[in-house]
């Protein structure tokens, strides 16, 4: 592939911003550029400097005055729940039993899984999400459809076949042996193929017997480099039910600890109601608490204590995610707008630089993938997005009074959605422009 020079204002984080004035936490070029070749960023910086490194006659794409950022990363969502979004339920367990489980049963059919996979990746590209960490359904067919589509689009994706062997309809149950065998088969078939990463995915303790949790622990020991994803401490009834199923465990977190599932590659969705002991256990193992704001508000699950988790003496690693279809938007911008409000309700501040850090580098750190994604650093994947703060008439009106980068980011977060994503580059290719409809 020949080189391409992409010009625009560029923003990329180096670390979490300590405050609104912490300009060392990021690099921002008002006339910046990326030199892209063979799916990678080979140079980044000022346009002037990058231009000197580019071959003569290199094609240029000029996105000024828009803002170029690393592609958004979504660290928790459910690929089979695209038709579950917006289902009217009182709480998590009612929502699962009434809408979600019946819908996921349909993913035993390859044609259905393939159709939804097409829509799923279209929505990711449309919303500027270039890496997502997804739950498939219990059926291997769903993981096959997901990874085949990710491979066809050359996207860096993390996903897993869900393991679940109780407390759900028959059509959604595997067995401890079957969950183990099929997860191994998915790993062998898809992990490392293209940019695919397979995650070990026990849905949550309620839907796995102790025997299945042991099988999940065995997989984690056999494949220590793989990501692990599950749910933890989302809803009070869920916590009580879990503790009744595992009476020997000290608490919900201890259930996972007993099967060796805590660790620096494990993503725990929600973590809203953790005790201090549980937070210590998360911190000591480097486990990640995944904040899913639109889902937490939609299902009435509770207010995620983000600042408490990251600022305590033993800090807990945190990432952010949509949790489609408990979540109500595919947009990471909409997600961080709700995250901001959740902090407001707790008397905490979440400044716009922090929000954009979390959507990019922060989530890449949570996935231990900063050598590949989350920044505009040379040598990383050329997955980046172009943001337009004047994408709608109302945004354009507000943009007239924007005077700083912080203002611009906050406008994008507060009013933006997929319309603010002017382009999504996947491995150096303009992917949003390719979408039909
Ligand atoms: Zn979830």
TrEMBL record:
Q: Which cofactor does it need?
A: Zn(2+)
Q: Which reaction does this chain catalyze?
A: guanine + H2O + H(+) = xanthine + NH4(+)
Note on cofactor: Binds 1 zinc ion per subunit.
Gene3D superfamilies recorded: Metal-dependent hydrolases, Urease, subunit C, domain 1
**What does the record give as its pathway?**
Purine metabolism; guanine degradation; xanthine from guanine: step 1/1
Domain Amidohydrolase-related residues, every copy:
68-428
Q: Which InterPro entries match?
A: Amidohydro-rel, Guanine_deaminase, Metal-dep_hydrolase_composite, Metal_Hydrolase, Metallo-dep_hydrolases
| Superkingdom of origin | Bacteria
Q: Which UniProt keywords apply?
A: Hydrolase, Metal-binding, Zinc
A molecular function annotated in GO for this UniProt entry is:
guanine deaminase activity
* Enzyme class, UniProt record, top EC level: hydrolase
What does the record give as EC number? Answer: 3.5.4.3
NCBIfam families for the chain = guan_deamin (TIGR02967), PRK09228.1 (NF006679)
State the function annotated in the UniProt record.
Answer: Catalyzes the hydrolytic deamination of guanine, producing xanthine and ammonia.
PANTHER family per record:
GUANINE DEAMINASE
UniProt similarity note: Belongs to the metallo-dependent hydrolases superfamily. ATZ/TRZ family.
Protein name (Swiss-Prot/TrEMBL): Guanine deaminase
- Species of origin reads Rhizobium herbae
């Amino acid at each position: 592939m020949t080189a391409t020079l992409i010009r625009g204002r560029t923003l990329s984080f180096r670390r979490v911003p300590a405050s609104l004035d912490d300009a060392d936490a990021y690099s921002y070029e008002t006339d910046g550029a990326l030199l892209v070749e063979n799916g990678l960023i080979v140079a980044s910086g000022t346009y002037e400097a990058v231009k000197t490194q580019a071959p003569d006659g290199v094609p240029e794409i000029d996105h000024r005055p828009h803002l170029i950022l690393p592609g958004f990363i979504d660290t928790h969502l459910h690929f089979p729940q695209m038709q579950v979004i917006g289902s009217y339920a009182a709480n998590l367990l009612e929502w699962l039993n009434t809408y979600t489980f019946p819908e996921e049963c349909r993913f035993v059919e390859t044609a259905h899984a393939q159709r939804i996979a097409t829509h799923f990746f279209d929505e990711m590209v449309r919303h500027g999400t270039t890496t997502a960490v997804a739950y498939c359904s219990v059926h291997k067919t769903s993981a096959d459809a997901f990874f085949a589509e990710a491979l066809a689009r050359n996207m860096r994706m993390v996903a897993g076949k869900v393991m679940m062997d109780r407390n759900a309809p028959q059509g959604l149950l595997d067995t401890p042996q079957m969950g183990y065998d099929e997860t191994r088969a998915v790993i062998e078939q898809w992990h490392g193929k293209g940019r695919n990463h397979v995650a070990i995915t026990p849905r949550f303790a309620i839907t796995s017997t102790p025997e299945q949790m042991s099988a999940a622990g065995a997989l984690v020991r056999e494949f220590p480099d793989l990501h692990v994803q599950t749910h933890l401490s989302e809803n009070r009834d869920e916590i009580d039910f879990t503790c009744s199923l595992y009476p020997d465990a000290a608490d919900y977190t201890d259930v996972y600890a007993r099967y060796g599932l805590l660790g620096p590659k494990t993503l725990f969705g929600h973590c809203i109601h953790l005790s201090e002991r549980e937070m210590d256990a998360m911190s000591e193992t480097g486990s990640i608490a995944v904040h899913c704001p639109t889902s937490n508000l939609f299902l009435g699950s509770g207010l995620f204590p983000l600042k408490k988790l990251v600022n305590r003496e033993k800090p807990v690693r945190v990432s952010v995610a949509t949790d489609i279809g408990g979540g109500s938007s595919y947009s990471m911008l909409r997600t961080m707008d709700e995250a901001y409000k959740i902090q407001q309700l707790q008397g905490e501040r979440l400044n716009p630089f922090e929000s954009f850090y979390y959507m990019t580098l922060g989530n890449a750190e949570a996935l231990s993938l900063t050598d590949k994604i989350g920044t505009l650093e040379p040598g990383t994947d050329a997955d980046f997005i172009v943001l337009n703060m004047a994408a709608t008439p109302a945004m354009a009106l507000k943009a007239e009074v924007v005077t700083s980068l912080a203002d611009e980011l906050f406008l994008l977060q507060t009013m933006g959605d997929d319309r603010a994503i002017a382009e999504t580059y996947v491995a150096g290719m303009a992917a949003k422009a390719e979408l039909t409809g």
